[in-house]
């Protein structure tokens, strides 16, 4: 399995634009093969690494971690990966429950590409805030706007990728937020 190439990344970006408009042609922009499934994991993992490098803990987090920025970044990465795995496991179960399991791979491909693209869109703002070029409030405002956009994106992915009803798609989007918050909280409690 090769890394995604530039044309595949640009196609995924076009697909996300179509997806946001509810255009079923978005599926034509993605490699829905088994190799395409596995390649869809590369961009979110690469952007996660960049995010962890750029992310700056606040004073309380840094004090808690004894000034260990690497330990802090590693734990944040573990939280992300754990939430990702738990979420996919739950959506796989829901997919089977609602007889949509045959389309679960398509959901994962669309989700991964969208996650990688939206995380990449955050990196310049994170870099600006980390380098004190932008006030922290800009990052906070961007994060809130991105969260709302992300919930809409996941709902669209569930509708198009899984073929879920609107109510199930909304539940799948809400589940993403709930799982992320729960896993982050659980990891914090365990540490």
Number of continuous helical runs = 8
Unreliable spans are: none
How many beta-strand segments? 0
Shape: globular
β-strand percent reads under 5%
What does the radius of gyration come to? 17 Å
Tally of individual domains: 1
Specify the helix fraction band.
over 70%
Largest β-sheet summary:
none
Q: What's the end-to-end separation, in Å?
A: 36 Å
Order of helices and strands: HHHHHHHH
Class from secondary-structure proportions? mainly alpha
Mean pLDDT: 89
Keywords:
0% strand, mainly alpha
Q: How are the elements arranged and paired?
A:
Elements: H1 6-20, H2 34-39, H3 42-54, H4 59-64, H5 69-97, H6 104-130, H7 136-162, H8 166-190
Describe this structure in words.
It is a single chain. The chain has 191 residues and is an all-alpha fold. The chain has one domain (6-190). The chain is built from 8 helices and no strands. The chain has helices at residues 6-20, 34-39, 42-54, 59-64, 69-97, 104-130, 136-162, 166-190. Helix 1 crosses helix 6 (104-130) and helix 5 runs antiparallel to helix 8. The longest helix is centred in the middle third of the chain and has 29 residues, at 69-97. The protein is globular and about 50 Å long. The mean pLDDT is 89.
């Amino acid at each position: 399995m090769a890394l995604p190439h530039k044309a595949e990344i640009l196609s995924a970006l076009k697909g996300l634009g179509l997806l946001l408009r509810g255009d079923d042609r978005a599926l034509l922009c993605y490699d829905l093969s088994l190799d395409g499934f596995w390649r869809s994991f590369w961009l979110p993992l690469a952007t996660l690494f960049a995010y962890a490098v750029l992310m700056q803990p606040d004073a309380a987090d840094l004090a808690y971690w004894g000034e260990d920025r690497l330990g802090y970044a590693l734990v944040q990465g573990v939280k992300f990966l754990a939430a990702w795995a738990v979420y996919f496991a739950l959506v796989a179960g829901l997919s089977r429950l609602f007889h949509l399991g045959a389309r679960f791979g398509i959901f994962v491909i669309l989700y991964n590409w969208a996650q990688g693209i939206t995380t990449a869109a955050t990196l310049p703002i994170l870099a600006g805030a980390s380098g004190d070029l932008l006030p922290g409030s800009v990052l906070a405002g961007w994060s809130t706007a991105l969260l709302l956009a992300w919930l809409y994106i996941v709902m669209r992915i569930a509708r198009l990728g899984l073929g879920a009803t609107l109510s199930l798609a909304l539940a799948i989007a809400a589940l993403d937020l709930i799982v992320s918050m729960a896993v982050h909280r659980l990891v914090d409690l365990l540490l």
